[in-house]
Every structure is written in C-alpha cells, then in structure tokens.
Amino acid sequence: MKILLIMANGNIHALRIGSFTKSFREAPLTMTTLAGLVPPDLNAHIHIHDENVEKLDPPKYLNYDLIAISAMTGTAVRAYEIADYYRRHGKTVVLGGIHVSIYPEEAKEHADCIVVGYAEKIWPMLLRDFVQKKMKARYDCPDESELENLPHARRDLQNSLRYVMPNTIMATRGCPHVCDFCTIPVVSKKYSKRPVNEIAAEVATLKGKRFAINDVSLIEDREWSIALFKQLAPLKKVWGGLCVFKIYKDKELMHWLKKSGCKYMLVGFESLSQHALKTIYKGFNQVEDYQEGMKVFHDHGIAIQGCFVFGFDHDTQNVFAETVEQVNKLKIDIPRYSIYTPYPETALFKRLVNENRVLTKDWSLYDTQHVVIRPANMTPEKLHEGFRWAYQETFKFLSISKRTIQANLDWPITFVGNLAYNIYVKRLYSTEVYVQPAFYEMIGNGHTHKEAVKQLGMNSVWLPDQLETR
Ligand code: SF4
C-alpha cells in the first residue's frame, strides 16, 4: 500500500530565497506522527509532502492508494482543492486536522473519509479498515486520548533541509486557558502530558544539538515541567518552545528551565493594554510584569519571541506606534505581529458574527495577515496599514540591533529570526492584501480572487497558491 500524507499550503511565514523555499517555522509534527503510527505489518510505502516548503505536483502521486490531507482553517480551501483533484482521479482521500474537526460537515463534501479530533488512536484502525475495504466515512477520536507509548515521529521521512528547525517533538497537548481568538479550546477541553521519560528518550534519539517542543503551552503543570527539565538537562541539548509569560516568577522552575538547555520561548503578550487582555480572557498576562519578566528570561539566557495582536476592540490607531516603541524598550528579541482573526467557532467568531462584523468566511484569508473583520475603532484599511507599518519599523536593522544585543543569548536564533522577518516585511510591502469590503463582497457573490482583483484594479496580490491540476 502507498500512502501520501500532505500538509496543505498555508502561505504563512515562509522564508523564500530564490527558487529554494526554507520554512521559517519548525518542521510540523502532524504528518511525521501519522507516519509513525502506520502499523508496520501493513508494509506501507509512505511519502510526506509539506506544501509550505515544496511545490506539489499532484499527478506525480496518482499511483498512491490513500491520500491523507491535514487542514487548518487558513489552508482548508487549498486542502479541499487538492482533495477534489485526487477524488476526480479515483483516489481515496482522508481529510483531518483542526478545521475538519470544527466543520466536519463542510469537509466531508471533499473527502471519502474525515477524521474528527486527534487521530492517533483512530489512524491505525482507519488504515486497517481501508485495507479490508470497509473504511467508514467518518472517524471520531475521543478527546480523552492518553499520550502514553506513542511511537516516535518519522522525521526520516520529512525533507529536513527545508526547515530552519527540523527536530520537533510533542510533549503536551491542549491548553487550560480560553483566549477568545484561539482554536485550541474549541477542539480540545483537555490538557494532556506525555510521560517525561518517554519525551527524554525521544529527544535522545534526535540528530544534532538543537530541537523544538512545538506544543501550544508547554509549562502549565509545574511539577511535571520540572521533572521534564531535570531529565532533559543531562542530554546537553539546546531547545525552544512556547509558554505563558507568568512562569518567570517561579525561581525553581526557571532554574531547571535554564539547566535543561532552553534558549528561546515564544510568548503571547498579545497587548499592552490590561483592559484588552481582560476582554480576550487573557488577564493572566500582567502588562506591569513585562519589563521585569523580560529581564528574568534574559538573565537565564532565554530569548523571547513575543507575539502581539492588532485590531482588538480597544485598539485605536495609536496602538501601532505604542507597540513598536514598547517592543524596543522591552528588548523583545523576535517580535511578531498578527491581525485579530476570528477563527471558526471561537468565542471571538461567535461574538463578531452576532455583531455582523465578520467581513468574509473565505477561509484562505484566515491567516492573521489579512483583515477579515470590521475593527471597532478604525477601518479595515487602517488596521492593515498599521500592521504593515509596525512590521517595517520593528525590523529595520537599527531597531534589530538595539533590541538584540544581549551578551548572554544564543545569537544564531535571534539573528536568523530577525533576518527572516526583515525579508518577510519586504514581501508584505511588495503585495497588495485584500482589505476592501468591495473585494469581500465580490468573493461573497461567487467571484474568484483573481476576478475580484482584476475588476477592482488591484495591481499585485498575495494570492493563496493556485493548484495546477487541470
Ligand atoms: S492563545 Fe495560548 S494561552 Fe490562550 S488558549 Fe490558546 S494556546 Fe492557550
């Protein structure tokens, strides 16, 4: 049996250098994990294709038996296009991923089978059913799946050269918080952890010194986290992950975090307004802590990739300049900006739909780089303009050097991160992005992106890739 596993193209944060595409993101784990779960007795030939880093040539894989495609909201339209292509050619297609779990009724129109929820318990069963020609149209995975005895991800099947960080690993799943824009609480109510000895054993097998734990919120259980860091310390590796900012207050935790080899953390600051944080259910971030916390992280040799969101109801046009100023003052090593985006079925989505402020449900524009809402205190155009301006100001070389000259930090991480965003800014400015309500209206009336762009006289556009299937 031949299995093709596809990550559909998200077009987000990809650093392209000439014809070679290297993803600024860490290698995704979805497909390598699914590959690791294929029962060995099926003797399957497995190919992984991540469209974010390599162009897909669909006809090349028409001799595969089963095509499995993972879709997030921003990649759902693309995933459906690919799925439709393979089904037109008589192939069996399975769709899974966050968006499919949220909107199974939408996804099932494009697949022979959909997987709702996290797939690890179901995937081997689905494959056996497929071999025995009794695959069902839908498999539901229980939210309470345990994370014990997971096989190791098949990193040997990924194109590692394409990723800045090819070594990625899962340690936890889910998040106990409920930020209003986040899809994690929509798909899972449970926070689960792998046994620490299993994580350390997998880390020990990784080639090279560096790795990343790309879970959405690694440090939520203090005792488990310290136990994990104690097991990682003797491995003498260097790693990064994601966490909530407030952990800096815990001295023992920070001690073991440093000892474990942690060199960078991605943190969602989201806003410099305590009022805005409260309204998005992220009041556990305290703005008054930011200065002190950054110093503690830096004193422990940990660089911070800090995420900020523009377009909260509280935000006025001053938010862009204020944020850029504070980001420099706080010496946030790699700042990252997003536009407030109402991912499907989140608390934010439900509220803005009720308030008639969602401009489009064209999922391909749900990438946090497009404005898909009517902001409360500015026009969609001003929001997008401010978002681009903030990126441009933040990644000027003078700003980068002021922020990042920190003697005790792991400079390759901050250098590569800032360089990538410097290039990304050029891309943001070289393209026109849809913000005009007229554009959304045309899309809503059934026009394609290209037709709308032509009719509205837009010059250059950042279109989601078109599938070459015909
Ligand atoms: S944004 Fe982060 S902290 Fe908030 S719910 Fe999502 S994963 Fe959890």
Describe the protein's architecture and organization.
This protein is an alpha/beta fold and 470 residues long. The protein has two domains: 2-140, 3-Layer(aba) Sandwich (Rossmann fold); 167-340 and 375-430, pyruvate-formate lyase- activating enzyme. It is built from 18 helices and 17 strands. The protein has helices at residues 30-36, 76-88, 98-102, 104-107, 123-131, 184-187, 196-205, 222-232, 251-259, 274-279, 290-299, 319-329, 347-354, 380-394, 397-404, 411-430, 437-444, 449-456; strands spanning 2-7, 14-17, 20-26, 45-50, 66-70, 92-96, 113-116, 138-140, 163-165, 168-169, 172-173, 192-193, 210-213, 238-242, 262-270, 303-310, 334-339. The strands form four sheets. A six-stranded parallel beta sheet has the order 4-1-5-6-7-8, with helices on both faces. The longest helix is centred in the C-terminal third of the chain and has 20 residues, at 411-430. It starts with a strand and ends in a 14-residue tail after the last helix. The model is unreliable at 12-20 and 460-470 (pLDDT under 50). Bound molecules: iron/sulfur cluster. Iron/sulfur cluster binds at residues 175, 177-179, 182, 184-185, 216-217, 244, 268.
